[in-house]
Amino acid sequence: SHCSSATAEVVDEQTAQEETEDKLKQSIDDLADKSVKVRVCALESLRQAFSSRLLTDFLLERHFTVGDCLERSLRKGGGAEQAAAATLCSLLCVQVGGGAEGEKDFKTIGPVLGSILIDSCANLSARRSCARALGMCCYVSAAEDAEDLLKALAQLEGVFSSAYPLVGGALPTVQAGTPPLHTAALQAWALLTTLCPSNTLSLSLHSHLPRLQACLESSDVHFRIAVGETIALLYEMGRDIDQVTYENRDALCEALKGLATDGNKHRAKNDRRKQRSIFREVLHYIENEDFSEERVRFGAEVLYIDCWVRRRIYEAFKDVLESGTLHHLQWNPLLRDVFGLGSPLILDTSVKSSKISRVERHLFNAAAFKARTKLRNKVRDKRADVM
C-alpha cells in the first residue's frame, strides 16, 4: 500500500504539471487574441507564472512565439498592454537566461523598448516599465555587446537627466507622474553602469556626480532615494578604479546629513523613515567606506549583499521577480551564476552533519562573486577597445 500511495503521488504531480502547462499554453495562445482585455489578462497570468517558478524547459521551444507576441503588444498595444508586455520581456529574459538565444531576442526587443522609453508622447506607466525592462534585458543578454550597452545607457540617461538642474542651478519643474519614470530610468542606468569598462565609468563619474548631488533636493522621496543609492554606487565603483577625487565631498556629506536626519512633517512618516535609514547608510559609506551587509536567506542558503554593486543587481532582479525572488535564487542558473552561488543545492534533510558553516559559505559566495567580477573586468577591458 505504501508503494501504491507513492505511485499515486507521482501521478498527481504529473497531472498537476500537465494542468499547469495547459494553462500556460492557453495564456500564450491568448497573447495573440483580438480582444485587448484577453491579451492583458494573458500577460498578467504569464507574469505570475514566470515570476513564481522556473519554466526554462517549457519555454525553450516557445520563447520565440512569446517574444513575437510581446513585440506586437509593445508596437501596437495601448499603455496598459505595453506596460504589461515590457514587464514580461524582463521575466522572459530571466527565464531563458543570456547566451546566444537571449542576445538574439535582445536585438529584436531592445530597440522597441528603447523607442517607447524615449517617446515623450507614450504612456508614462509603459515608459517606466520599458526603462526597467531595457535595463534588465540589456544586463542579462547584451552584457558582452559594447554597442547595445552604450545605446541603452544613453537612452536611459536621456530620460532621467531631464530632472537635472537647469543652467542657473535650480531644479526644473517636472510634469506630474514623471518622477517614477525618472527613478526607474536612473535605477536601470545604475544597473548597466556595473558592466561599464573603466574609461566609460570614469567619464560617468565626472559627468554625473555633481548633477546627481543637486538632485538630492528633489521633491520626490523615491527619486531622492534612488539618487542617493546611485551616488554611493558610483563612489564604490570609482574607488575600485581609483577615480574618486571629488572636490564637492564636504558639501555632499552635508546634504546627506540633512536627509539622514530629515524631520519634515510634510512628508509621510514611512517615507521619512525609509529616507533617513538609506541616507544614513550612504553617508556612512562615503565617510568611512563601510557598507552595512544584508543577508537574504533562501532554502538552506544565504546570499550576502556586501557592497552597493551587489545590492543594485539584487534589487533589480527583485523588482522583476517580486515574491518569486527566493525561488529563483534557489533554482535559476542565471541568478546563481550572477551571484556566484554555484549549482543548485540538492540537500538531503537527514544529513545535517555535512552542512557547511555560515562563515565558509559566506567566504565561498564572496570569492565566487569576486571571481565573476574579475572575469567581467576582462570582458570590460576587451569592450574598452571597442568603445
Automatic annotation (TrEMBL):
Residues 10-21 have a biased composition (Acidic residues). Residues 332-384 form the Interferon-related developmental regulator C-terminal domain. Belongs to the IFRD family. Residues 4-287 form the Interferon-related developmental regulator N-terminal domain. The lineage of its organism: Eukaryota, Metazoa, Chordata, Craniata, Vertebrata. SUPFAM superfamilies: ARM repeat. InterPro entries: ARM-like, ARM-type_fold, IFRD, Interferon-rel_develop_reg_C, Interferon-rel_develop_reg_N. Residues 1-22 are annotated as: Disordered. This is Interferon-related developmental regulator 2. It holds the Pfam family IFRD.
